[in-house]
Every structure is written in structure tokens, then in C-alpha cells.
Design a protein that fits this description.
Strand content: under 5%
Radius of gyration: 24 Å
Number of strands: 0
Low-confidence stretches: none
Oligomer: single chain
């Protein structure tokens, strides 16, 4: 009887501790999101009357060529993010795990992770200086090598601006993918590697037969995070190009910001934000459903 009562006892202390967290989430996360959805159905004019317009803002979105062009750029960024921007972190993780000395592993792991502690804005501003057409490191290096013809206005030319943005952070080792890949490799039982060595498996064979299959769950996680990250991408482009030149680096988040702060179409901006929220939520729910179905 006593044990049954103990199991039925409600942990009120835990709920009371969590209550401030849920209150903050409701005030600064859930309420703004719901408020934005509501305003997307109005011709929102902060401080003035906001007449109800129904789905007009969403119908306007269907004919917004710049909005759809921004998704083309987002698609290019996504393909880049899951190809080249995964290759170098994966290679770095494999090289770190190949070191025989635990002390060296710790040193190199720390050196590769340390840049993550720096604010992302600082990194973007540093690359903005590097891309400076006159005194930037990139053009100065090209001129020093006698390749003056290759020097250019990297973020001021529509032909190179998007590629310049995607190159920020090269070689992309100090990143979340590196941490995920390294953690996955560290969790592979040593007995599996020892058995592969006894069977005569080389380094490349071990990578394809052991490392990649063991990292499959982590790759799925990174894929979902990459989709969400691309849908929310905008900070780098806003600082360096503001979506230009000639909308060459326009992305969905920047199009939403332009609708709000440049066109002062707050209701339309709320509609664009609602669509981005729905896409992000859909990707997250789909990932959860697939994870449960596969048992991972």
C-alpha cells in the first residue's frame, strides 16, 4: 500500500521549478508565434487600425517572384551545406580518431572545437574584411601570386556573391557536423575496429563498412538540422550583402525582413514568417515520425 501511494505521489516540486521556464516560453516563444499568425490575416499597421484581409497576404505571396527566387538560393545553400560543408568536418573527425595518442586526440579536438566559442557575427565581419575588393586578404593574396586577373569584388558582384557567402568559415571544421561525426566515431566499440584489423580491412574499407553505417543515425539528424538551418538562414547575408547585389543573395528570411522594414508591409511579412514557421515545424515533425518508425 505504501509503495502504491509513493508511485502515485505527484512531484509538485518539479512542476513548480519548471513553471517559470514554461512561462518564459509562453511569453517569448509561443505568444509571438501565435500573434504573428493572427496578424498575417490582417493589413497590419502597428499603432493604427489593422483591417482583416483574410488570406490576401498569402495570395500575394503566391505571386511574389522574389520570394520564390529566395528559395532557389536557399536550395543552393542546402546542397552546399550537405556536401562540401560535411566533407571537411568528416575528414577532420576521421583524422583525429586515427591518432594513436589520447593526449594528441584531446589537443587537436580542443583546437578544432575552440573557434565555436567565438560569436558568429565576429566570424562574418572577419570574412567581410577578407573579401574587401581593395585591401582584402583574398585579393591581396591573388595579387601577390601574380593572379591579378582573378581578383574581384567578391560580395559586390552578382555572379560571385552567393558563392562568397557560402565559403564563409572555410574549411568549416569548427562546426556542429564535426562535433556530431566525432562523437559518433568515439561511440564505435573498439572491438569492432580490432575485428576489422584482424580481418585485414584497410582504412578506406573500414570507413565504408563500419564508420558510415554507424553514423547513419547522426547523418539523418544533421540532414534535418541542415533543412531547418537553411530555412532560418539570413544573418550572414544580412550583414554582408543585405540580399544584394541585384537580389543575388536573397533568402526567405531576408525577403521577410524586407517586406517588414523596407516595404512596411507588416501583415505580409507576418504571412511569410508563418509559412517559414510551418515549413520548419513540418520538417521537425516529419523527422520525429521517421525516427520513431525506424526505431532510432
Amino acid at each position: 500500500m505504501t509503495s502504491t501511494k509513493a508511485r502515485r505521489r505527484i512531484p509538485w516540486g518539479v512542476y513548480l521549478v519548471l513553471l517559470p521556464t514554461f512561462a518564459l516560453l509562453a511569453a517569448f516563444a509561443y505568444y509571438p508565434a501565435l500573434n504573428g499568425m493572427l496578424h498575417s490575416l490582417h493589413e497590419w499597421r502597428p499603432g493604427f487600425g489593422s483591417p482583416f484581409v483574410g488570406l490576401d497576404n498569402y495570395l500575394t505571396m503566391l505571386g511574389d517572384d522574389l520570394w520564390w527566387a529566395s528559395f532557389r538560393n536557399a536550395g543552393i545553400i542546402f546542397v552546399w551545406a550537405v556536401t562540401l560543408m560535411w566533407v571537411f568536418p568528416l575528414l577532420a573527425a576521421e583524422l583525429v580518431m586515427s591518432l594513436s595518442s589520447e593526449r594528441l586526440r584531446f589537443v587537436f579536438r580542443t583546437l578544432l572545437i575552440l573557434p565555436l566559442a567565438f560569436p558568429a557575427v565576429v566570424n562574418v565581419l572577419l570574412w567581410q574584411f577578407m573579401y574587401d575588393p581593395r585591401d582584402g586578404v583574398v585579393n591581396s593574396l591573388l595579387r601577390a601570386l601574380g593572379l591579378d586577373g582573378l581578383a574581384g569584388n567578391w560580395i559586390g558582384d552578382p555572379a560571385t556573391a552567393l558563392a562568397a557567402l557560402m565559403t564563409i568559415g572555410f574549411p568549416w571544421v569548427a562546426s556542429l557536423p564535426f562535433l556530431v561525426f566525432l562523437s559518433a566515431l568515439q561511440n564505435v566499440p573498439a572491438e569492432i575496429y580490432q575485428a576489422a584489423e584482424v580481418d585485414g580491412a584497410g582504412r578506406l574499407r573500414r570507413f565504408w563498412s563500419i564508420d558510415l553505417p554507424m553514423m547513419f543515425r547522426d547523418v539523418k539528424l544533421l540532414l534535418v538540422l541542415a533543412v531547418i538551418s537553411v530555412l532560418q538562414y539570413g544573418m550572414q547575408a544580412h550583414i554582408m550583402t543585405k540580399g544584394g547585389p541585384d537580389n543575388a543573395t536573397q533568402v526567405p528570411v531576408l525577403r521577410m525582413l524586407d517586406a517588414a522594414f523596407v516595404d512596411t508591409s507588416w501583415g505580409y511579412a507576418a504571412a511569410l514568417g508563418t509559412v517559414l514557421f510551418a515549413l520548419t515545424l513540418g520538417v521537425s515533425l516529419a523527422a520525429l515520425a521517421l525516427g520513431r518508425r525506424s526505431g532510432s
